[in-house]
Amino acid sequence: MTQHPTKTTIIAFTISLFVFLLSIQFFLHQNPKMASSSALNQTPIHPDPDPIDPYQRAHIIPNPNGTITRLHEFFPTVPPSLSNSSSLSLSKDVPLNPEKHSWVRIFLPSGSGRPAKLPILIFAHGGGFVLYSAASRVFHEFCSNAASRLGALVISVEYRLAPEHRLPAAYDDVLEALSWVKQGKDEWVKERGNFSNCVLTGQSAGANGPVSLGS
């Protein structure tokens, strides 16, 4: 025998539906962006007439062989400086692994009053593993300031970039730099570095190296 809903059930259902619809209306009133986006979703979506070229935005040109050409005018570099007059820190470039064309730029804070042994800060620059260099102006100035302000020996790693050298090439170069520092082959590192106080750090993509090596 089929049971028909009672009058009480119908009233309860009607009240529940009313409360539900009222809640939606209140929510949309409190969140007008949701209401406007819902209306926009009902309109046809047309493709962007001027899509963004990611290569152009990144100032790089893809080559047929899988490499890229980096437009250097957008990524200015500066040479190291051994002069006290023009910078907060002295700096020099030292080969890390000639076969891999990797090297490091070392920053020694200038001025008197520094302790004989300085903390060592190994730094990996940012750039999505694709762009920039240890010689890039932005990272050169950052490391020079860090060495001066922190009173530390800063070692910026010039690691290999993708797509010419896929990961973990960059990680390997940072790890090799850490081993190179431990060996104390460079005069500045050997005479001024405090090997008991060594920090591995980086910026943006460069910070992935310390995180990966530390995990």
Report the top-level CATH class of the domain at 76-207.
Alpha Beta
> Low-confidence stretches at least 5 residues in length (pLDDT < 50)?
8-15, 17-22
Fraction of residues in helix: 25-40%
The largest sheet is: 5 strands, mixed
* Strand line-up in the sheet with most strands: 3-4-6-5-7
Question: How would you describe the overall organization of this protein?
Answer:
The chain is α/β, with parallel strands linked by helices. It has a domain at 76-207: Alpha/Beta hydrolase fold, catalytic domain (Rossmann fold). 37% of the residues lie in helices and 21% in strands. It contains seven helices and seven strands, in the order H-H-H-E-E-E-E-E-H-E-H-H-E-H. It has helices at 7-30, 32-41, 54-57, 137-150, 169-183, 187-192, 208-214; strands at residues 60-62, 68-70, 89-97, 102-109, 118-124, 153-158, 193-202. Strands 3-4-6-5-7 form a five-stranded mixed β-sheet. Strand 3 and strand 4 form a beta hairpin. Helix 5 (169-183) crosses helix 7 (208-214). The longest helix has 24 residues, at 7-30. It is elongated.
